[in-house]
# Entry
Amino acid sequence: MTERYDVLVVGAGPAGLAAAQAAASHGRRVGVIDAQARPGGQVWRHDIAKPPARAAQAAIAAIEHVKLLAGHTVIASEGHTLRTESAHGAHDLAYGALILATGARELLLPFPGWTLPGVTGAGGLQALVKQGWPIAGKRVVVAGSGPLLLAAADSLRAHGAQVLGIHEQASARAMAAFTAQLWRWPERVVQALGLRARLASVPYRFGSHVRAAFGNDTLEAVEIVGPHGVQRVACDHLAVGYGLVPDTGLARLLGCALQDGAVHPGVRVDPLGRTSVANVFAAGEACGIGGLAVARIE
# Structure
């Protein structure tokens, strides 16, 4: 049996929730697909230890009349129909218009030992911990590059992890140049200062990266290269990530053109969010990494 929607949104993060609310406010029948059990996406993922942000609560409440297809994964597409899979089987979802709000994924770079149990993406471990993964008392090294490291370390600490250090691959000079630009976004400055204050007791090293991970059946230690040489650190978990890149898997499946010239291109859209495929739109991080505010506006 095929369910039919005027507008079908893939992704229940900030961009998808905003798109669904906008379409529903014009009287359209709207469905929102998401692989997770709850709406919110990665940014507003449900955390068992604390209530959701007020903005998240408001955005979720605003789609109370929208059909939420939680726990659904898109596995195929034909014409104006998506086939999804859930715990209850396969479903065919027809649409008049499709909005891709598939967000971003972590960029991971391989190194010796990176497939050992205990080595995860920084955002991946953050997501697991929010959903109840036992981390209290565990020794964790956070490494890679980008602001996600601070956010991940903050969440891990809040759930009882012993964060041994944050190792940022970028140099101190590069980070200073990046920080000097933040005055344009006062809200981000406040967020960054709050994170640094809460993590004041955690060593934060620039120009430092993980060279290898060691262990037999699971992670036991990591080798870190920094300005002062090589250091071996015993740990239970390594949370490592090198920023975010647009998640364009479904867009490519549908034949949507990607942006030109980028190493990790997002979906190419015009000023109205239209992709190169008729009746398919895209918004948020799938079009390029811009953050929460940009995603909601798009």
Observations:
- The first helix runs from residue 14 to 24.
- The first strand starts at residue 2 and ends at 10.
